[in-house]
Specification:
The complex is a heterodimer. Helices cover 43% and strands 17% of the residues of chain A. Chain A is an alpha/beta fold. In chain B, β2, α5 and β3 form a beta-alpha-beta unit. The chains are: A alpha/beta, B alpha/beta.
Chain lengths: 270, 435
């Protein structure tokens, strides 16, 4: 569906079901050089099990107009704007990678309006090496290969019939990059991750339960890299659930069922 | 498989899509000869049917063994995924039927395998899909043939049997200018010699019966999607960009930004047309793919020696391989194929001087080359296209495809090249005596 958010036509995939104001809502936010389709299986399941699903294309990405978020805070403002535009009082927030930081900041900003916070493939700080930052700006194809290799942990992805996730990531990355001829969303997204310095403060302000879905072989956001956020959440007294899945950074396609099951249990779907 | 570089071709040929079986530890890919798969629960069953979970339901739609083959060829081609089919012909039909319906139009190369020509020129026309055939190297003809209702451009990486190399960068650019995808048949080149997706093609298919399996034991096909074509931007493919009542009102391009074609081809095409690949056949093809790089190198080195021999033989008037400088695709082959012109492969034609009966004498005198209708086997093969594979084509169409009445097609196998040359020498002598 398309929604006017802060004056821009914005897209959210609803998992094959129409938006129903009477149902609880889950907002799913993708990472750098991705779009709503990375949540295909999980979003369809949630949508057909009692949830409104809003799997967004971030501003300036694919079907969404607007300026790509140059900071995590701008991404969080978009999430809040989306909820306001649809009159959603409360929502569960689920983010992957860059999207996890956006959801973390949004949960902090939204206070009680955030009912759940699920961080998939997260780390803080989410530093990006200078070489990768430079490559994402100057030679995006090379950087795309690098991130794909770092992100993928298996040559036998269990993502169902005949899908080749290495190739799918490359093709999606190229498509997302091409979708915005004015702004390099690859570099912009990496810069936003790299420069975000409010993660611990944001986690300290979160009041809802937190789930972390971490890839055991994740080289982009290692499980160790999530530890500062885990410790901060624990010291803040919010419930923290840790779920490790046996793959790399693309938990939704390399471990689709494990990721869904973790979300299901967290959102308490029967 | 975490590492610091993309896995290379030879590694992918052995490992892509498979891992030791978690249930038994079996290192080889298990053959899952089962029609269907037990559901864990009613909820899981519903989720599988509604594309909420990954998994297998019924082997016409997907199967774990077949999925390994699909992932492996997708990996080797640099695609996003693949769909295995009962044959190469089924892969071509699935591609066409997924993208268009009655009233649509295709522009295709005239240098096609005879079966593909039959399907497009005769059979699809009966279902309201017309095809205009153009010479593969005549870019203006491709451009002129495109109509408002054109939905696909189609050619072979190297034409059968003339080995006209399709200028994929040029033809794909032309296709994209018109909001159209380019489909290529890459059977003769295999991903080892050319990866058409990286050159601009959008969809690739193979008759896996040939080099991929390589042993002449199995019929199979597969279509690979590069995920590069933007169906929504094109605006010409409502099959992929509008609600499909036949499958949960799904808008395939909304579900998957890069995988819309594969979604519809599997969810409609395999479901309704049903031309799926048997898991046993998939397994046989996988055995061949493991050695594809090694076999292709031997095919090529044998072919180089045989081309050199034939080109120097007085009974031979023409050798139709881009290794010969005068071949019309020599320069293009140098540019687009692995290793240059030698990468045009091991299926090629040549003309014998003399009468039709001398040609027959040649074929009948061969001992190692088997006279049959196939290519890409480990064993060397021979056929007379004008009377067999291309016999339905008119003289004009034959000429356009580069086939003469005395043309002989060879598929050079993996035998010792000295033995193959001895066999050809003996047969050419027999042809000479038959004058």
């Amino acid at each position: 569906m398309f929604i006017d958010v802060n004056g821009y036509r914005s897209y959210a995939y609803t998992g094959g079901k129409d938006f129903n104001p009477a149902q609880p809502t889950v907002v799913l936010v993708h990472g750098v050089l991705c779009d709503h389709s990375v949540w295909l299986l999980q979003s369809r399941y949630l949508a057909h099990h009692g949830w409104n699903v809003l799997a967004v294309d971030l501003p300036g990405h694919c079907k969404s107009e607007g300026t790509p978020p140059a900071s995590v805070q701008q991404g969080a403002a978009f999430v809040q704007g989306l909820m306001d535009a649809l009159g959603i009082q409360q929502a569960a927030l689920v983010g992957h990678s860059f999207g996890s930081l956006i959801c973390l900041q949004a949960a902090a900003d939204l206070g009680k309006r955030a009912t759940h916070l699920a961080l998939v493939g997260t780390a803080y700080p989410m530093k990006v090496s200078q070489a990768l930052l430079d490559a994402s700006r100057d030679t995006p194809d090379t950087a795309l290969h690098m991130t794909n290799v770092f992100s993928r942990a298996t040559l036998a992805p269990p993502s169902g019939a005949g899908s080749w996730v290495f190739g799918a990531s490359m093709a999606l990355g190229k498509r997302v990059l091409a979708s915005n001829p004015e702004v390099n969303v690859f570099y912009t997204g990496f810069q936003a991750c790299n420069s975000y310095d409010q993660g611990l403060q944001a986690m300290a302000a979160v009041t809802c339960p937190v789930l972390m879905v971490l890839g055991e072989a994740d080289q982009m956001t290692t499980p160790k890299g999530a530890q500062p956020l885990i410790e901060q959440a624990q010291s803040s007294g919010v419930a923290v659930h840790i779920n490790r899945v046996p793959n790399g950074h693309h938990q939704m396609s390399e471990s689709p069922d494990e990721t869904l099951d973790a979300l299901k249990a967290f959102l308490r779907i029967a | 498989m975490s590492g610091y570089a993309d896995p290379h071709f030879d590694t992918l040929a052995l490992h892509a899509g498979s891992q030791p079986d978690p249930a038994t530890g079996a290192r080889a890919v298990p053959i899952h000869l089962t029609t269907s798969f037990v559901f864990e629960s009613s909820d899981q069953a519903a989720s599988l049917f509604n594309l909420e979970r990954a998994g297998h339901v019924y082997s016409r739609i997907s199967n774990p063994t077949t999925a390994v083959f699909e992932q492996r060829i997708a990996a080797l081609e640099g695609g996003i995924g693949a769909i295995a089919t009962a044959s190469g012909q089924a892969a071509l039909h699935l591609s066409v039927a997924t993208l268009m319906g009655a009233g649509s139009h295709i522009v295709a190369s005239s240098a096609l395998y005879g079966g593909s020509h039959n399907l497009l020129h005769y059979t699809m026309r009966r279902f309201g899909i017309e095809t205009t055939f153009v010479h593969p190297n005549d870019t203006d003809a491709w451009r002129s043939a495109i109509r408002p209702n054109t939905r696909l451009l189609f050619g072979e990486t190297v034409g059968n049997p003339g080995l006209d190399v399709l200028d994929i960068p040029v033809i794909s650019h032309l296709a994209h200018e018109h909001g159209l995808p380019l489909l290529v048949d890459a059977t003769l080149s295999t991903p080892y010699l050319m990866q058409p997706l990286s050159l601009g093609a959008d969809l690739v298919y193979h008759s896996a019966t040939k080099f991929l399996s390589g042993h002449g034991t199995v019929i199979g096909g597969v279509v690979v999607d590069g995920g590069s074509f933007d169906w929504e931007k094109s605006g010409k493919f409502p099959e992929l960009t509008e609600r499909y009542e036949g499958f949960h009102n799904m808008v395939f391009s909304e579900e998957s930004t890069v995988g819309a074609f594969l979604l519809r081809a599997r969810r409609e095409g395999l479901r309704d047309f049903g031309a799926c690949l048997s898991p046993h056949s998939a397994w046989l093809i996988l055995q061949g793919m493991e050695t594809l790089p090694l076999r292709m190198e031997r095919h090529l080195s044998n072919t180089e020696k045989i081309v050199e021999f034939l080109a120097a033989h007085p009974m031979v008037s023409r050798v139709g391989h881009p290794l010969i400088d005068s071949h019309p695709s020599h320069a293009l082959a140098q540019k687009l194929l692995r290793g240059g012109a030698r990468g045009a492969g091991s299926v090629f034609s040549f003309d014998i001087r003399g009468t039709r009966s001398q040609g027959r004498a040649f074929i009948e005198a061969l001992k190692l080359f088997s006279h049959l209708a196939n290519v890409g086997d480990s064993k060397s093969l021979v056929i007379h296209p004008a009377s067999t594979t291309h016999f339905r084509m008119s003289d004009e169409a034959l000429t356009s495809a580069g086939i003469g009445a005395g043309t002989i097609r060879l598929s050079v196998g993996l035998e010792d090249p000295t033995d193959l040359i001895d066999d050809l020498k003996r047969a050419l002598r027999a042809a000479e005596k038959a004058a």
